[in-house]
Write a structure and sequence with these properties.
Length: 245
């Protein structure tokens, strides 16, 4: 993060199971600037309590026994437009991931994340970023409405450093993590990502991750494409789709 936050991020947790809520609450309570302000186990309570508590971030399961987490997300965003929703689930749900990519939610995480990853996701989303667990991108590539649009580059291929940053974005790394790995300043990382997104004609990290997963895997070699033709948008080797889906 470019600035040290002093005002706690107010988080509201929604899940059917008490042990999941307790686990998330424990992980988040370890961070100085994250405060869990409430919990709910049903769609009805999630909507009403979000309206009452006005949280910054709602961490919510996709599949609630009382209804759809996606519908709850839409209702919460309708009544509390400043609240950002992160879907937090043990499995991938196509509708919820597509809702995330469409901007209805700000993130989708699988519950295998550790405490630090969950904390960083909460802080990133609170600052307006979008988070998508890279483990769930591949099965959804064929369903993405922006799939054809994002492959049209506005300029030439990415430079080697831009390709490296692009790959780290696709892995779900934060700007701070990318800067630490590549020994770059936060300002340089931000400007590089902005330039990469302009080149690839994408606006969200989730779109960039999807494009990378579909097109870029320099370490793999496809028997159907032994010469490894390069994608003009990324400058990376193309891979047969059967390796991705």
């Amino acid at each position: 993060m470019s600035k040290t936050r002093t005002v706690p991020v107010r988080v509201f947790i929604v899940d059917d199971y008490e042990f999941v809520r307790a686990g998330a609450r424990t992980m988040l309570s370890r961070h100085d600037v994250i405060s869990v302000v409430g919990e709910a186990s049903t769609v009805k309570d999630a909507i009403s309590e979000s309206f009452r508590l006005k949280p910054d971030v709602v961490l919510m399961d996709v599949d609630l026994s009382s209804g759809s987490g996606v519908e709850a997300c839409r209702a919460i965003r309708g009544s509390c437009p400043n609240a950002r929703v992160i879907f937090f689930s043990s499995y991938e749900d196509n509708e919820a991931v597509l809702a995330t990519m469409a901007g209805e939610a700000s993130g989708y995480l699988l519950q295998h994340v550790n405490a630090e990853e969950l904390q960083q996701a909460i802080l990133a989303v609170a600052q307006g970023q979008s988070i998508l667990d890279p483990a769930i991108t591949q099965p959804l590539l064929a369903h993405m409405p922006f799939q054809d649009e994002v492959t049209t580059p506005r300029r030439g291929p990415l430079s080697p450093q831009q390709q490296h940053i692009f790959a780290l974005v696709a892995e779900g790394k934060t700007n701070r993590e990318i800067g630490a790995l590549l020994e770059l300043s936060d300002k340089t990382v931000k400007s590089s990502i902005r330039f990469i997104f302009q080149k690839l004609n994408v606006t969200r990290r989730a779109q960039a991750a999807a494009l990378f997963t579909r097109n870029a895997a320099p370490e793999k070699r496809s028997p159907d494409n032994p010469t490894n033709q390069r994608d003009p948008a990324t400058g990376c080797d193309l891979v047969s789709s059967r390796y991705l889906l």
